[in-house]
Design brief:
Strands 1, 2, 27, 28 and 29 form a 5-stranded mixed β-sheet that branches. This protein has a 4-stranded antiparallel β-sheet with strand order 3-4-5-6. A 4-stranded antiparallel β-sheet has the order 7-8-9-10, with no helix packed on it. A hairpin with a 6-residue loop joins β15 and β16. The longest helix is centred in the first third of the chain and has 4 residues. The chain has about 475 residues and is an all-beta fold.
Length: about 475
């Protein structure tokens, strides 16, 4: 059985034709740019961030816009956001066989990029692996990395480095198949739970503290639903995500871990009348309210790793008041207990999945779907900056002078080194996020205060003197 990748709804996304640096979010519209062509369905890329800040991505390659794949492609995105050309990591026309399923990617000891995938270059369904020691510029010949006791022929594969051990998952044979390590005789097991044991659209993340691998998947068995479960090095309890009943199967569940601190997280719409409110759950216990974008009904959602323990959360759907399709994005504080102001942008797209990586601060967002006017699906990329907050108090000093007391925060965490500007004066915030400015003006008049910091959107606030 092929692990399914089905968009719940195909609507419409502005087509960008150039393969160039990603678009920065504007005040009104997010314009992702095409980085890779894809065949049928909502193709999910796999990606990792190496120590030099480069984001590496692998995907089922499709060179000719047809409805079939012909290999594995690799793309690198620089820390500044430049999208490199797609590399043919595996060309089935050369190696023989046929591809099956979406590849997984991980960074192994020594900085080696390791990809796994299904297919039959050697006469069986693998899984197979290829590796790169030069940052994705070239890749090894495919090698059978299966244990021999359980072959995973197709579906969405994921790969994680769990304390130096490669752990991969995939939908197979009625559930989630898990293998610890590569090669014959490696521990391989099938995870099912009593009522929901047909797994597709798998994702996984590794806890930064314990090294535990947690998988998320969509079930098409019995009542269906979205599930999360620890799969390695030991198995944990399968937990059903409490999404509202109107969401059917085919909705991928994207999970993400913190880069510092424990926890693997998944987002979901809360069970209210309009599904506009989003919550974030941590596997193993606990949820927190992310918030809502007014009138925005969530249809597709995801999470991504941010810096310093933060988690990005994003969702897309239709604004029930305006009828427009929009995306909302926000980022947590370091403790994952509060969130930045929610940013919303117009995003007219036929979206299958949303995923991303925000370890550098800004979010590298991937949109898989169908662009307006295009006949085939693609993977699109945009870079989104996080949002600051500022509290400002004006104190009348007399004689037309006012002292502005400004505190700059990111989801409640103080931001040091931010530049605060007003009335021709400029100050930089201290470690507590505070700065003081003395400006001229008249009582009752309005003054614009701007706050800027590297890798944040510039904030403009109005204060009454």
């Amino acid at each position: 059985m092929r692990g399914w990748i089905r968009p719940r709804m195909l609507l419409v996304l502005g087509l960008a034709t150039a393969l160039a640096a990603p678009a920065i979010a504007s005040a009104a519209t997010l314009s992702p740019r095409l980085v890779a062509k894809a065949g049928y369905g909502a193709v999910v890329p796999s990606f990792v961030r190496t120590a030099d800040g480069t984001l590496h991505m692998v995907l089922e390659a499709n060179i000719n816009w047809g409805d079939s794949f012909n290999g594995v492609g690799a793309i690198s995105i620089s820390p500044s956001g430049h999208v490199g050309a797609e590399v043919a990591a595996l060309n089935w026309a050369v190696s023989g066989g046929s591809p099956n399923g979406i590849p997984g990617l991980a960074i192994m000891p020594g900085g080696v990029l390791q990809a796994v995938f299904g297919g039959s270059p050697g006469g069986d369904d693998g899984p197979w692996g290829i590796s790169s020691t030069d940052g994705g510029s070239s890749w090894s010949a495919p090698a059978d990395v299966g244990s021999g006791s359980m072959e995973v022929g197709d579906g969405q594969m994921t790969l994680q480095n769990s304390n130096g051990t490669p752990v991969f998952t995939g939908g197979c044979c009625g559930g989630i198949v898990v293998q610890n390590g590569f090669g014959p005789g490696r521990p391989t097991y099938l995870l099912t739970n009593g009522s929901d044991d047909v797994a597709g659209n798998t994702s996984s993340a590794v806890d930064a503290v314990t090294g535990a691998v947690v998988a998320g998947w969509d079930s098409n068995q019995g009542p269906g639903g979205l599930w999360v479960q620890q799969v390695a090095p030991s198995t944990g309890t399968a937990v059903k995500v409490p999404v509202p009943s109107q969401y059917g199967t085919g909705q991928p569940l994207i999970v993400a871990s913190r880069d510092k601190g424990p926890g693997v997280f998944a987002a979901y719409p809360s069970n209210d009348a309009n599904t506009t409110r989003i919550r974030l759950m941590r596997y193993g216990g606990g949820t927190v309210s992310v918030g809502s974008a007014r009138h925005l009904h969530a249809d597709t959602w995801g999470v991504a790793t941010g810096p310093d323990g933060r988690i990005w959360v994003f969702w897309w759907g239709q604004n029930t008041k305006t009828g427009k399709q929009e995306i909302a994005l926000t980022r947590s504080n370091r403790a994952v207990t509060a969130f930045e102001p929610i940013q919303t942008f117009n995003l007219t797209f036929s979206i299958g999945t949303l995923s991303g990586d925000g370890r550098l601060g800004p979010l590298d967002l991937f949109v898989s779907g169908l662009a307006n006017g295009a006949s085939q699906t693609g993977i699109y990329h945009a870079r989104v900056l996080p949002e600051l907050s500022a509290s400002i108090k004006a104190v009348d000093l007399g004689g037309g002078k006012f002292k502005l007391k400004v505190r700059v925060t990111d989801a409640g965490d103080p931001v040091s080194g931010a530049t605060v500007s007003a009335g021709g004066e400029h100050k930089v915030t201290h470690a507590n996020g505070r700065a003081k400015l003395t400006v001229s003006g008249s009582s009752g008049h309005h003054l614009t205060v701007t706050v800027s910091a590297p890798d944040y959107r510039t904030l403009a606030e109005t204060v009454t003197l």
